[in-house]
Amino acid sequence: MTRVFLPLDTFAVACGADEIAEELTREAGARGLDVEIVRTGSRGMAWLEPLLEVETGEGRIGYGPVEPGEIAALLDAGVLDGAAHERGIGRVEEHPFLQGQTRLTFARCGVIDPLSLDSYRAHGGLAGLERAAQMEPLAVVAEITDSGLRGRGGAGFPTGIKWKTVAEASADRKYIVANADEGDSGTFADRMIMEGDPFALIEGMAIAGLATGATKGFVYLRSEYPVAIRVLTEAVERARAGGVLGPSVLGSPHAFDIEVRVGAGAYVCGEETSLLESLEGRRGQVRAKPPLPAIKGLFGRPTVINNVVTLASVPAVMADVGRYKSLGFGRSRGTMPLQIAGNVRYGGLYEAPFGITLGQIVDRIGGGTASGRPVKAVQVGGPLGAYFPRELFDTPFDYESFAGRDGLIGHAGIVVFDDTADMARQARFAFEFCAVESCGKCTPCRVGAVRGREAMDKLIAGERPAANLELVEDLCNTMKFGSLCALGGFTPYPVMSAITHFPEDFGRPPMSEAAE
Ligand SMILES: Cc1cc2nc3c(=O)[nH]c(=O)nc-3n(C[C@H](O)[C@H](O)[C@H](O)COP(=O)(O)O)c2cc1C
Ligand code: SF4
Prior knowledge:
The chain is α/β, with parallel strands linked by helices. Helices cover about 40% and strands about 15% of the residues. Helix 9 packs across helix 11 and helix 18 packs antiparallel against helix 19. The longest helix has 18 residues, at about 445-460. It is globular. The structure holds flavin mononucleotide and iron/sulfur cluster. Iron/sulfur cluster binds near residues 440, 446, 483, 485 and 487.
């Protein structure tokens, strides 16, 4: 019997993986071949999807991108024996894109059957939870604090400190909420892990439950991720059947269970208090803080809200705190799943320790633009992140270095633009995005975004450009300091970085001339 691996991941499915699986079943049946198709997550090499892998004596040999309609020819060429072919990439594990990575959180993604608890365990899964179940809850919290793990959802808040607040709060119920709203442009790490290794998220949430005394977890998952909803829901049921979730987690005295809830799709519902409103059945509108969700969160109870990648990293942290802590740069410890997207040759997910430079990510790993034209700008950290020009490509990828250059790493979405991009239009887009997605609770954001878009429209039309640019800068100042949450408060980052680094697109002299 030959085992063949084909992703069920959205990347691959969007490019025909389901059709290819059907074709393979049909062709193998017609030829009397004994083939088992294992649907996996993605390895993260998006340009090679659908990537078909064949198990051979030499390891897993990859072929990609395979297109629907090609299976018969591939079988004729002998790919089930690992034969050479123009689509062949050789041994998958040895591909340079994978070789350069340090995969901790995504170690199993693309490798195992995401719904097999046995495979998960055989590849190191549940070691962290088994350890945590034998420890005092506060000792688990202390290890997470010691590891230096920070929230991967955007703000980079130390995870251990958040957990400690919840652990020390007394209440009849406490909750763990996984933020799977993943609305940032160019980001897909949450989706990939939920589709490719959902037990990592489940295990991370269970560890958080044990550490803080929470007995119930919710995953707030966006409706735009149907594959992730299906895989995660099934994984939760299997974890329950396997004793990982339920009244006695892995046979311990701790109870913990998880429910998957699907959000209707609003960017602001990724903001933690808005998410709580939505989870409680109301319109997703931001709550004023304090109280912090860690004190008074879901249904008024102490609640840990963490990003999916934060929680899915916890098992790897708990399995080897020393190793995790030893990786990274400055106060940014461990690894980050970089999501390389936009106009780029080799887009996908690349997990690496913090500290790699932006230039290395874009030029070396991403291979420059897909269009072959020069890179003009890179937006890092989603729609609220700053645009970085090539002059800033020496910036190390970590929270502090990006903040020091008026940027943010956010959820590590990296979107590349070539020299045809008009940064004035990108600045207009930032205001438009904010105007569309604003929850409307505070005036600087609700009104500022609309006025900003209008001023940018006038500027682009050549109407009193200097006065309108001044108005835009003034609005940015008001939004930055007067908004209730980061949607209004951070929209000035893409706008101001575009003006600062690409003044010529706004009718101002280029930076080189301005400096003279
Ligand atoms: C407008 C807005 C959208 C956000 N969207 C997300 C999101 O989609 N996913 C996420 O994890 N965090 C998002 N955040 C950050 C969350 O509010 C919160 O900081 C995060 O879930 C905390 O988890 P962490 O500490 O693990 O990062 C968003 C914040 C804002 C202001
Ligand atoms: S900044 Fe915008 S999204 Fe945030 S609370 Fe104010 S109106 Fe709502």
